[in-house]
Write a structure and sequence with these properties.
By secondary structure, the protein is α+β, with helices and mostly antiparallel strands. 62% of the residues lie in helices and 10% in strands. It has 2 domains: 106 residues, Single Sheet (Outer membrane efflux proteins (OEP)); 373 residues, Up-down Bundle (Outer membrane efflux proteins (OEP)), CATH 1.20.1600. It has 11 helices and 4 strands, in the order H-H-H-E-E-H-H-H-H-H-E-E-H-H-H.
Length: 481
Amino acid sequence: MPMGSQPVRAELLRPLVIGLLTLAQVACVRFTGIELIQAQREIPRENEDSQFSAWPETEWWKAYEDKNLNRLVESALEANPSIELADSRLRMAQSIASYAGATLKPRVDAGFESAWQRYSENGLVPPSLGGSHEVDGRFAVDLRWEIDLFGKLRHAIAATRRQVDVESINRPIARLALASAVASTYFRLAEAGAQREVVLATIEQRRGILKLVEARVALGVDSRVELMQAEGAIARAEEELAATHEQVALLRASLSRIAVVSLAETASLAPTLIELTAPQLPDPIPSGLVARRADIVAAQWRIESIVHGIESVKAEFYPSVNLASFAGFSALGFDDLMKGSSGIYGLVPSVSLPLFDADRLRAKLGFVTAQGDMAIAQYNDTVLNAVQEVIHAITSIRALRERQAAQQKAQAAAETAWQLAMQRYKAGLTGYLTVLSTESEVLRERRAAAALKGRALTLDISLKQALGGGIETTASALAHR
Protein backbone atom coordinates (compact mmCIF):
# COMPACT_ATOMS: atom_id res chain seq x y z
CA MET A 1 0.00 0.00 0.00
CA PRO A 2 1.59 3.31 -1.00
CA MET A 3 2.51 5.55 1.87
CA GLY A 4 4.10 9.04 2.10
CA SER A 5 7.55 9.62 3.56
CA GLN A 6 6.26 11.52 6.62
CA PRO A 7 4.12 8.66 7.97
CA VAL A 8 6.99 6.24 7.33
CA ARG A 9 9.39 8.41 9.32
CA ALA A 10 6.94 8.84 12.17
CA GLU A 11 6.20 5.14 12.18
CA LEU A 12 9.92 4.34 12.52
CA LEU A 13 10.85 7.02 15.06
CA ARG A 14 7.93 6.57 17.43
CA PRO A 15 8.86 3.05 18.60
CA LEU A 16 12.54 4.05 18.60
CA VAL A 17 11.94 6.90 21.03
CA ILE A 18 9.59 4.84 23.19
CA GLY A 19 12.09 1.98 23.29
CA LEU A 20 14.91 4.35 24.19
CA LEU A 21 13.01 5.86 27.10
CA THR A 22 11.84 2.46 28.34
CA LEU A 23 15.32 0.97 28.28
CA ALA A 24 16.75 3.98 30.09
CA GLN A 25 14.26 3.43 32.91
CA VAL A 26 14.73 -0.32 33.33
CA ALA A 27 18.52 -0.54 32.96
CA CYS A 28 19.95 -3.35 35.03
CA VAL A 29 23.68 -2.72 34.58
CA ARG A 30 24.80 0.27 36.67
CA PHE A 31 28.13 1.89 37.44
CA THR A 32 27.32 3.07 40.95
CA GLY A 33 30.10 2.58 43.52
CA ILE A 34 32.99 2.76 41.03
CA GLU A 35 34.72 6.12 41.48
CA LEU A 36 38.23 7.59 41.64
CA ILE A 37 39.82 7.22 45.08
CA GLN A 38 42.99 9.31 44.81
CA ALA A 39 43.05 13.12 45.09
CA GLN A 40 45.50 15.41 43.31
CA ARG A 41 48.12 17.20 45.36
CA GLU A 42 48.10 20.98 45.00
CA ILE A 43 51.25 23.00 44.34
CA PRO A 44 51.25 25.87 46.88
CA ARG A 45 50.72 29.11 44.95
CA GLU A 46 51.75 31.49 47.71
CA ASN A 47 55.44 30.93 46.98
CA GLU A 48 55.75 33.16 43.92
CA ASP A 49 58.90 34.99 42.86
CA SER A 50 58.47 37.34 39.90
CA GLN A 51 62.24 37.52 39.37
CA PHE A 52 62.27 33.92 38.20
CA SER A 53 59.10 34.02 36.08
CA ALA A 54 61.02 33.84 32.79
CA TRP A 55 64.09 31.88 33.86
CA PRO A 56 65.77 29.77 32.52
CA GLU A 57 65.87 30.34 28.76
CA THR A 58 64.77 27.58 26.42
CA GLU A 59 68.30 27.21 24.99
CA TRP A 60 69.92 27.72 28.39
CA TRP A 61 73.16 25.91 27.49
CA LYS A 62 74.15 28.78 25.17
CA ALA A 63 74.67 30.99 28.23
CA TYR A 64 77.94 29.10 28.86
CA GLU A 65 79.29 30.53 25.57
CA ASP A 66 81.07 27.34 24.52
CA LYS A 67 80.93 26.52 20.80
CA ASN A 68 81.84 22.86 21.31
CA LEU A 69 79.09 22.43 23.90
CA ASN A 70 76.55 24.09 21.56
CA ARG A 71 77.58 21.81 18.72
CA LEU A 72 77.27 18.66 20.84
CA VAL A 73 73.86 19.64 22.22
CA GLU A 74 72.54 20.45 18.75
CA SER A 75 73.81 17.12 17.44
CA ALA A 76 72.12 15.24 20.30
CA LEU A 77 68.82 17.04 19.77
CA GLU A 78 68.92 16.24 16.09
CA ALA A 79 70.03 12.63 15.98
CA ASN A 80 69.57 10.95 19.38
CA PRO A 81 67.18 7.95 19.26
CA SER A 82 65.22 9.24 22.27
CA ILE A 83 64.01 12.17 20.14
CA GLU A 84 63.07 9.81 17.32
CA LEU A 85 61.19 7.65 19.83
CA ALA A 86 59.27 10.69 21.12
CA ASP A 87 58.40 11.68 17.54
CA SER A 88 57.16 8.15 16.77
CA ARG A 89 55.00 8.10 19.90
CA LEU A 90 53.50 11.45 18.90
CA ARG A 91 52.65 10.21 15.40
CA MET A 92 51.08 7.11 16.92
CA ALA A 93 48.94 9.21 19.28
CA GLN A 94 47.88 11.46 16.39
CA SER A 95 46.82 8.44 14.34
CA ILE A 96 44.78 7.05 17.22
CA ALA A 97 43.11 10.45 17.68
CA SER A 98 42.28 10.62 13.96
CA TYR A 99 40.76 7.13 14.09
CA ALA A 100 38.71 8.01 17.18
CA GLY A 101 37.49 11.23 15.56
CA ALA A 102 36.22 9.27 12.56
CA THR A 103 33.93 7.14 14.75
CA LEU A 104 31.66 10.15 15.31
CA LYS A 105 30.85 10.31 11.60
CA PRO A 106 28.77 7.94 9.45
CA ARG A 107 30.47 5.13 7.61
CA VAL A 108 29.46 4.30 4.04
CA ASP A 109 30.41 1.02 2.32
CA ALA A 110 29.66 -0.30 -1.14
CA GLY A 111 29.60 -4.05 -1.63
CA PHE A 112 28.51 -6.96 -3.76
CA GLU A 113 27.32 -10.28 -2.35
CA SER A 114 26.38 -13.43 -4.20
CA ALA A 115 25.21 -16.73 -2.73
CA TRP A 116 24.24 -19.93 -4.49
CA GLN A 117 21.83 -22.01 -2.45
CA ARG A 118 18.97 -24.45 -2.42
CA TYR A 119 15.79 -22.90 -1.07
CA SER A 120 13.76 -24.80 1.48
CA GLU A 121 10.39 -26.14 0.39
CA ASN A 122 9.06 -25.27 3.85
CA GLY A 123 10.68 -21.85 4.38
CA LEU A 124 9.62 -18.25 3.92
CA VAL A 125 9.96 -18.32 0.13
CA PRO A 126 7.30 -18.53 -2.58
CA PRO A 127 6.29 -22.15 -3.31
CA SER A 128 7.62 -21.78 -6.81
CA LEU A 129 11.15 -21.38 -5.43
CA GLY A 130 10.96 -24.24 -2.91
CA GLY A 131 13.47 -26.94 -3.70
CA SER A 132 15.16 -24.88 -6.45
CA HIS A 133 18.80 -23.88 -6.71
CA GLU A 134 19.34 -20.21 -7.33
CA VAL A 135 21.99 -17.50 -7.17
CA ASP A 136 20.99 -14.64 -4.85
CA GLY A 137 22.84 -11.43 -5.74
CA ARG A 138 23.01 -8.11 -3.91
CA PHE A 139 24.80 -4.91 -4.90
CA ALA A 140 24.21 -2.00 -2.52
CA VAL A 141 25.57 0.98 -0.64
CA ASP A 142 25.26 0.63 3.15
CA LEU A 143 25.41 3.46 5.69
CA ARG A 144 26.07 2.90 9.39
CA TRP A 145 26.05 5.63 12.01
CA GLU A 146 26.29 5.40 15.77
CA ILE A 147 24.41 8.36 17.23
CA ASP A 148 26.38 9.53 20.25
CA LEU A 149 23.53 10.61 22.54
CA PHE A 150 25.35 9.95 25.81
CA GLY A 151 28.88 11.06 24.93
CA LYS A 152 30.67 7.72 24.61
CA LEU A 153 32.40 8.67 21.37
CA ARG A 154 32.91 12.34 22.25
CA HIS A 155 34.69 11.45 25.49
CA ALA A 156 36.79 8.82 23.71
CA ILE A 157 37.84 11.44 21.16
CA ALA A 158 38.67 13.95 23.91
CA ALA A 159 40.79 11.29 25.64
CA THR A 160 42.84 10.59 22.50
CA ARG A 161 43.31 14.29 21.78
CA ARG A 162 44.57 14.89 25.31
CA GLN A 163 46.97 12.00 24.84
CA VAL A 164 48.29 13.78 21.74
CA ASP A 165 49.02 16.79 23.97
CA VAL A 166 50.88 14.49 26.38
CA GLU A 167 53.03 13.08 23.60
CA SER A 168 53.58 16.57 22.18
CA ILE A 169 55.11 17.73 25.45
CA ASN A 170 57.11 14.52 25.90
CA ARG A 171 59.34 15.61 23.02
CA PRO A 172 60.63 18.78 24.75
CA ILE A 173 60.97 16.73 27.96
CA ALA A 174 63.27 14.36 26.07
CA ARG A 175 65.15 17.35 24.61
CA LEU A 176 65.68 18.82 28.10
CA ALA A 177 66.96 15.51 29.44
CA LEU A 178 69.35 15.18 26.50
CA ALA A 179 70.67 18.74 26.72
CA SER A 180 71.20 18.33 30.47
CA ALA A 181 73.00 15.01 29.98
CA VAL A 182 75.30 16.48 27.32
CA ALA A 183 76.09 19.62 29.35
CA SER A 184 76.66 17.68 32.59
CA THR A 185 78.96 15.17 30.88
CA TYR A 186 80.79 17.99 29.09
CA PHE A 187 81.55 19.81 32.33
CA ARG A 188 82.49 16.56 34.08
CA LEU A 189 85.01 16.16 31.27
CA ALA A 190 86.22 19.69 31.96
CA GLU A 191 86.59 18.81 35.64
CA ALA A 192 88.48 15.61 34.81
CA GLY A 193 90.77 17.61 32.53
CA ALA A 194 91.41 20.13 35.31
CA GLN A 195 92.19 17.29 37.72
CA ARG A 196 94.64 15.88 35.19
CA GLU A 197 96.39 19.25 34.86
CA VAL A 198 96.75 19.41 38.65
CA VAL A 199 98.32 15.95 38.69
CA LEU A 200 100.65 16.82 35.79
CA ALA A 201 101.79 19.96 37.61
CA THR A 202 102.32 17.89 40.75
CA ILE A 203 104.49 15.40 38.85
CA GLU A 204 106.65 18.21 37.52
CA GLN A 205 106.82 19.67 41.00
CA ARG A 206 107.87 16.34 42.51
CA ARG A 207 110.48 15.81 39.83
CA GLY A 208 111.98 19.15 40.83
CA ILE A 209 112.00 18.04 44.47
CA LEU A 210 113.62 14.74 43.41
CA LYS A 211 116.53 16.64 41.87
CA LEU A 212 116.92 18.58 45.08
CA VAL A 213 116.89 15.35 47.12
CA GLU A 214 119.45 13.75 44.77
CA ALA A 215 121.71 16.77 45.26
CA ARG A 216 121.35 16.53 49.02
CA VAL A 217 122.07 12.80 48.92
CA ALA A 218 125.22 13.46 46.88
CA LEU A 219 126.32 15.95 49.51
CA GLY A 220 125.54 13.44 52.26
CA VAL A 221 122.84 15.63 53.82
CA ASP A 222 120.02 13.15 53.02
CA SER A 223 120.05 9.39 52.82
CA ARG A 224 118.69 6.96 50.28
CA VAL A 225 115.53 6.77 52.38
CA GLU A 226 114.55 10.30 51.36
CA LEU A 227 115.55 9.47 47.77
CA MET A 228 113.23 6.45 47.66
CA GLN A 229 110.41 8.47 49.20
CA ALA A 230 110.81 11.16 46.52
CA GLU A 231 110.79 8.56 43.73
CA GLY A 232 107.76 6.83 45.27
CA ALA A 233 105.88 10.13 45.43
CA ILE A 234 106.37 10.55 41.67
CA ALA A 235 105.14 7.00 41.01
CA ARG A 236 101.99 7.61 43.07
CA ALA A 237 101.28 10.79 41.13
CA GLU A 238 101.77 8.93 37.84
CA GLU A 239 99.24 6.33 39.05
CA GLU A 240 96.75 9.14 39.70
CA LEU A 241 97.53 10.55 36.26
CA ALA A 242 96.65 7.20 34.65
CA ALA A 243 93.32 7.24 36.53
CA THR A 244 92.53 10.73 35.24
CA HIS A 245 93.46 9.64 31.69
CA GLU A 246 90.96 6.80 32.01
CA GLN A 247 88.24 9.10 33.31
CA VAL A 248 88.79 11.59 30.48
CA ALA A 249 88.62 8.80 27.86
CA LEU A 250 85.40 7.38 29.34
CA LEU A 251 83.72 10.80 29.46
CA ARG A 252 84.71 11.48 25.85
CA ALA A 253 83.16 8.15 24.87
CA SER A 254 79.98 9.02 26.80
CA LEU A 255 79.73 12.34 24.98
CA SER A 256 80.14 10.52 21.68
CA ARG A 257 77.20 8.24 22.55
CA ILE A 258 74.85 10.92 23.89
CA ALA A 259 75.55 13.47 21.15
CA VAL A 260 75.59 10.77 18.44
CA VAL A 261 78.95 11.84 17.01
CA SER A 262 82.02 9.78 16.17
CA LEU A 263 84.67 9.03 18.75
CA ALA A 264 87.12 10.95 16.57
CA GLU A 265 85.09 14.13 17.12
CA THR A 266 85.34 13.85 20.91
CA ALA A 267 88.86 12.35 21.09
CA SER A 268 90.53 15.77 21.29
CA LEU A 269 87.91 17.57 23.37
CA ALA A 270 89.53 19.42 26.24
CA PRO A 271 86.99 21.85 27.72
CA THR A 272 88.01 24.17 30.52
CA LEU A 273 86.18 24.92 33.74
CA ILE A 274 84.63 28.36 33.63
CA GLU A 275 83.90 30.63 36.55
CA LEU A 276 80.16 30.99 37.01
CA THR A 277 78.47 34.09 38.31
CA ALA A 278 76.44 32.74 41.21
CA PRO A 279 72.70 33.14 40.52
CA GLN A 280 70.59 35.10 42.97
CA LEU A 281 68.52 32.34 44.49
CA PRO A 282 64.92 32.78 45.63
CA ASP A 283 64.03 32.38 49.29
CA PRO A 284 60.73 30.58 48.60
CA ILE A 285 60.44 27.85 46.01
CA PRO A 286 59.31 29.53 42.76
CA SER A 287 56.11 27.47 42.53
CA GLY A 288 54.95 29.32 39.44
CA LEU A 289 57.83 27.78 37.49
CA VAL A 290 57.47 24.40 39.19
CA ALA A 291 53.80 24.26 38.17
CA ARG A 292 54.82 24.94 34.56
CA ARG A 293 57.32 22.07 34.49
CA ALA A 294 56.63 19.96 31.44
CA ASP A 295 56.53 16.67 33.34
CA ILE A 296 53.92 18.04 35.77
CA VAL A 297 51.80 19.41 32.92
CA ALA A 298 52.09 16.07 31.09
CA ALA A 299 51.02 14.20 34.23
CA GLN A 300 48.01 16.54 34.60
CA TRP A 301 47.00 16.01 30.99
CA ARG A 302 47.39 12.25 31.37
CA ILE A 303 44.85 12.39 34.20
CA GLU A 304 42.46 14.41 32.03
CA SER A 305 42.81 11.88 29.22
CA ILE A 306 41.97 8.97 31.51
CA VAL A 307 39.02 10.87 33.06
CA HIS A 308 37.57 11.29 29.57
CA GLY A 309 38.12 7.56 29.08
CA ILE A 310 36.21 6.85 32.29
CA GLU A 311 33.29 8.97 31.11
CA SER A 312 33.34 7.15 27.77
CA VAL A 313 33.06 3.78 29.51
CA LYS A 314 30.26 5.09 31.75
CA ALA A 315 28.34 6.07 28.61
CA GLU A 316 28.39 2.39 27.57
CA PHE A 317 25.99 1.71 30.45
CA TYR A 318 23.37 3.84 28.66
CA PRO A 319 21.41 2.88 25.54
CA SER A 320 23.35 2.60 22.30
CA VAL A 321 21.53 4.15 19.34
CA ASN A 322 22.49 3.21 15.78
CA LEU A 323 21.10 4.15 12.42
CA ALA A 324 21.66 2.08 9.30
CA SER A 325 20.37 2.48 5.78
CA PHE A 326 20.93 0.82 2.44
CA ALA A 327 20.17 1.35 -1.23
CA GLY A 328 20.99 -0.82 -4.21
CA PHE A 329 19.83 -3.85 -6.13
CA SER A 330 18.89 -7.41 -5.19
CA ALA A 331 17.73 -10.27 -7.44
CA LEU A 332 17.79 -13.99 -8.02
CA GLY A 333 20.33 -14.53 -10.71
CA PHE A 334 22.53 -11.98 -12.42
CA ASP A 335 20.33 -11.23 -15.39
CA ASP A 336 17.87 -9.06 -13.46
CA LEU A 337 20.28 -7.68 -10.82
CA MET A 338 20.78 -4.20 -12.29
CA LYS A 339 17.17 -3.64 -13.44
CA GLY A 340 15.14 -0.86 -11.87
CA SER A 341 12.60 -3.38 -10.65
CA SER A 342 15.35 -5.00 -8.53
CA GLY A 343 15.99 -1.80 -6.59
CA ILE A 344 16.03 -1.93 -2.78
CA TYR A 345 16.37 0.70 -0.06
CA GLY A 346 15.62 0.92 3.59
CA LEU A 347 16.21 2.56 6.97
CA VAL A 348 17.16 0.45 10.01
CA PRO A 349 17.21 2.32 13.32
CA SER A 350 18.17 0.31 16.41
CA VAL A 351 18.60 0.82 20.13
CA SER A 352 20.17 -1.53 22.67
CA LEU A 353 20.98 -1.49 26.35
CA PRO A 354 23.01 -3.99 28.40
CA LEU A 355 20.65 -5.68 30.86
CA PHE A 356 22.91 -8.51 31.97
CA ASP A 357 26.57 -8.88 31.00
CA ALA A 358 28.04 -10.79 33.95
CA ASP A 359 29.68 -7.53 35.16
CA ARG A 360 31.77 -7.09 32.04
CA LEU A 361 31.12 -3.35 31.88
CA ARG A 362 31.67 -2.87 35.61
CA ALA A 363 34.99 -4.68 35.34
CA LYS A 364 35.95 -2.48 32.36
CA LEU A 365 35.01 0.66 34.29
CA GLY A 366 36.89 -0.57 37.35
CA PHE A 367 39.98 -1.08 35.19
CA VAL A 368 40.00 2.43 33.68
CA THR A 369 39.16 3.96 37.07
CA ALA A 370 42.16 2.20 38.58
CA GLN A 371 44.22 3.65 35.72
CA GLY A 372 42.94 7.07 36.75
CA ASP A 373 44.02 6.50 40.36
CA MET A 374 47.44 5.40 39.11
CA ALA A 375 47.74 8.56 36.99
CA ILE A 376 46.82 10.74 39.98
CA ALA A 377 49.36 8.94 42.16
CA GLN A 378 52.01 9.45 39.46
CA TYR A 379 51.08 13.13 39.25
CA ASN A 380 51.43 13.53 43.02
CA ASP A 381 54.78 11.75 42.93
CA THR A 382 55.93 14.00 40.07
CA VAL A 383 54.95 17.12 42.05
CA LEU A 384 56.80 15.94 45.16
CA ASN A 385 59.88 15.05 43.14
CA ALA A 386 59.80 18.40 41.33
CA VAL A 387 59.68 20.37 44.58
CA GLN A 388 62.39 18.17 46.07
CA GLU A 389 64.67 18.67 43.04
CA VAL A 390 64.35 22.45 43.32
CA ILE A 391 64.98 22.37 47.07
CA HIS A 392 68.03 20.12 46.65
CA ALA A 393 69.50 22.28 43.88
CA ILE A 394 69.00 25.54 45.78
CA THR A 395 70.29 24.05 49.05
CA SER A 396 73.37 22.59 47.35
CA ILE A 397 74.19 25.85 45.56
CA ARG A 398 73.99 27.79 48.82
CA ALA A 399 76.14 25.21 50.58
CA LEU A 400 78.62 25.26 47.69
CA ARG A 401 79.32 28.95 48.27
CA GLU A 402 80.34 28.22 51.85
CA ARG A 403 82.41 25.21 50.78
CA GLN A 404 84.26 27.24 48.13
CA ALA A 405 85.05 30.02 50.60
CA ALA A 406 86.39 27.50 53.14
CA GLN A 407 88.33 25.61 50.46
CA GLN A 408 90.02 28.77 49.22
CA LYS A 409 91.24 29.51 52.74
CA ALA A 410 92.43 25.94 53.17
CA GLN A 411 94.27 26.00 49.84
CA ALA A 412 95.96 29.32 50.66
CA ALA A 413 97.13 27.91 53.98
CA ALA A 414 98.36 24.69 52.34
CA GLU A 415 100.26 26.61 49.65
CA THR A 416 101.93 28.81 52.29
CA ALA A 417 102.80 25.80 54.46
CA TRP A 418 104.36 24.01 51.49
CA GLN A 419 106.43 27.04 50.51
CA LEU A 420 107.69 27.40 54.09
CA ALA A 421 108.47 23.68 54.26
CA MET A 422 110.47 23.92 51.03
CA GLN A 423 112.41 26.89 52.34
CA ARG A 424 113.21 25.08 55.58
CA TYR A 425 114.12 21.88 53.70
CA LYS A 426 116.53 23.76 51.45
CA ALA A 427 118.05 25.36 54.53
CA GLY A 428 118.38 21.95 56.16
CA LEU A 429 116.01 22.84 59.00
CA THR A 430 113.38 20.13 58.32
CA GLY A 431 113.15 16.67 56.83
CA TYR A 432 111.71 15.45 53.52
CA LEU A 433 108.60 13.97 55.20
CA THR A 434 107.45 17.49 56.12
CA VAL A 435 107.85 18.59 52.49
CA LEU A 436 105.97 15.52 51.24
CA SER A 437 103.18 15.99 53.76
CA THR A 438 102.62 19.67 52.97
CA GLU A 439 102.88 19.03 49.24
CA SER A 440 100.22 16.29 49.48
CA GLU A 441 97.90 18.79 51.17
CA VAL A 442 98.48 21.24 48.31
CA LEU A 443 97.60 18.53 45.77
CA ARG A 444 94.45 17.64 47.70
CA GLU A 445 93.29 21.26 47.86
CA ARG A 446 94.05 21.97 44.22
CA ARG A 447 92.00 18.95 43.20
CA ALA A 448 89.24 20.00 45.60
CA ALA A 449 89.16 23.44 43.94
CA ALA A 450 88.70 21.82 40.52
CA ALA A 451 85.98 19.51 41.88
CA LEU A 452 84.05 22.43 43.40
CA LYS A 453 84.23 24.39 40.14
CA GLY A 454 82.86 21.38 38.31
CA ARG A 455 80.12 20.94 40.92
CA ALA A 456 79.12 24.59 40.51
CA LEU A 457 78.47 23.95 36.83
CA THR A 458 76.57 20.69 37.34
CA LEU A 459 74.43 22.28 40.07
CA ASP A 460 73.67 25.18 37.76
CA ILE A 461 72.45 22.68 35.16
CA SER A 462 70.44 20.80 37.81
CA LEU A 463 68.68 24.00 38.90
CA LYS A 464 67.81 24.91 35.31
CA GLN A 465 66.45 21.40 34.76
CA ALA A 466 64.53 21.41 38.06
CA LEU A 467 62.85 24.68 37.11
CA GLY A 468 61.62 23.25 33.82
CA GLY A 469 64.45 24.08 31.45
CA GLY A 470 62.48 26.92 29.87
CA ILE A 471 60.01 24.55 28.19
CA GLU A 472 56.88 26.45 27.18
CA THR A 473 53.79 24.45 28.14
CA THR A 474 51.02 26.78 27.01
CA ALA A 475 48.43 25.61 24.51
CA SER A 476 49.64 28.08 21.87
CA ALA A 477 53.20 26.80 22.10
CA LEU A 478 52.02 23.21 21.75
CA ALA A 479 49.90 24.13 18.75
CA HIS A 480 52.96 25.78 17.17
CA ARG A 481 55.03 22.64 17.73
